[in-house]
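Recall the central idea of this unit: under ordinary conditions, the amino acid sequence of a chain determines the structure it adopts. In this exercise we apply that idea directly, starting from the sequence alone.
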Amino acid sequence: MAGWNRLLDWLLPPRCGGCGAVGAWLCAGCRDRVRRLEEPLCRRCGRELEHAGISCGCRARLRCLSRLRSVAAYEGPLERAIHRFKYAGWQALAPALAGLLTEVVSVEVGVHTDAQLVPVPLHPRRLRQRGYNQAVLLVGDLRHRLRLQKPAGRLIRVRDTPPQVGLDRLRRRSNVDDAFEWRGPPLAGGAILLVDDVATTGATLESCAAALKAGGAGQVVAVTLARVDV
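Accordingly, the structure predicted from this sequence is:
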């Protein structure tokens, strides 16, 4: 397998998702320019705060989601790489991006070594259009890296919601209310790590967490590659 991968790299060399340079799916220079989120962070939603100890105000809208953590700000080379990964068919970026995600996942998994990884699902119509779910690709690589469990059931999107882009916070929340459902055996209080590429207001992640809680989940922690500051 290693020899086959080397042959593929020679025939079709990796191209950096951040800058387009040949040689790696995410080059060292672009990795260095990814701006990690820095303390002080909101203890619940992970948003960067100006001063430690101030209230973020997220608790009223994130009731089912125990915690949200993101690796970095949605800007620069990471923004370009995620856009190519999500919309331009660059599925080969998944391992490089999952490698970044392990920075935050490893910390959260340290508390729950039996946690189950669950991707944010796409509606079947959107999945047919795109051909793949980027969150599923990230979860597949993370499960391999961290040796975490695959749940017996799955989270599904039961309502085909319009894209969240351009909606304000209240409209984002109403757009995804009751849009998800857990299908499978009850989760019996198990810890869930919910995975997606980008978090903005957390409305989609909160709706997913509500569905997982209804399916019997215990603590639900969401982790994403990037965070949009709104």
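The chain has eight helices and six strands.
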